[in-house]
Write a structure and sequence with these properties.
By secondary structure, this protein is of the alpha/beta class. 53% of the residues lie in helices and 13% in strands. It has a 5-stranded parallel β-sheet with strand order 2-3-1-4-5, sandwiched between helices. Helix 3 runs parallel beside helix 5. The structure holds thymidine-5'-diphosphate.
Length: 209
């Protein structure tokens, strides 16, 4: 069966992921391959509704287990409805956040049991793993200041110490799974970062202009 390429972009809040996802999607599209750009939580009708619940600052009473299960619920719908069919068509799927966000935020940031989060991730991803995951890395204080300059959503309202734990969790993942998870220095000019990202994908999608 033809199988596409599944790439995920990760990082703490304010690391510049959305900008870079746009640049990368354009570079992959320019090769003529079908490119499907997604972001989590979201990407389907149901997942967007779950996203609104998750990010609403009015839901301050949400307990960590509820939060974990909502991220996984959103992911399961996106995986089966959009990601798996796109990969079967041979597309390149570029997803802004996937299950490593749950590891970094719910196990790292929120300090939920790691084993529990990993099992939940298996369920939410329906067993589908990215081929390559790029962690855009910045000092937490720099990202946090950027992310909250225009106000904070429910997750950003957790504060800087939370973001430090998120970053540390991402760096642990990269050590554990060096083949899949690569850390990309997200400091410096936008185009420099974009070029580092393309370099970290060349073995999978070929040289990108
Ligand atoms: P979003 O506005 O999309 O942030 P960003 O542009 O930084 O991706 O909000 C998503 C928030 O949800 C972000 O703070 C990270 C958090 N998150 C989790 O805590 N767990 C998860 O599994 C995912 C996918 C996101």
């Amino acid at each position: 069966m033809a199988r596409g390429v599944f790439i995920t972009l990760e990082g703490a809040d304010g690391c510049g992921k959305s900008t870079q996802a746009g640049l990368l999607a354009a570079a992959i599209e320019a090769t003529g391959r079908e490119t499907v750009r997604l972001r989590e939580p979201g990407g389907t009708k149901i997942s967007e509704k779950v996203r609104a619940i998750l990010l609403d600052p009015a839901n301050a009473e949400m307990v960590p287990e509820c939060e974990l299960l909502l991220y996984e619920a959103s992911r399961a719908q996106l995986t089966r409805e959009v990601i798996a069919p796109a990969l079967e068509r041979g597309a390149v799927v570029l997803c802004d956040r996937y299950y490593d966000s749950t590891y970094a935020y719910q196990a790292g940031g929120r300090e939920l049991d790691e084993g529990l989060v990993r099992r939940a991730n298996e369920l939410g991803s329906c067993g589908l793993s990215p081929d390559r995951t790029l962690v855009l890395d910045l000092p937490a204080s720099v990202g946090y200041a950027r992310a909250t300059a225009g106000g904070a959503d429910r997750m950003e309202a957790e504060g800087l110490a939370f973001q430090e734990r998120v970053r540390a969790a991402y760096l642990r993942l990269a050590e554990e799974e060096p083949g899949r998870v690569r850390v990309v220095d997200a400091s410096g000019e936008r185009d420099e970062v974009a070029s580092r990202i393309r370099g970290a994908l060349a073995d999978l999608v070929g040289e990108l202009a």
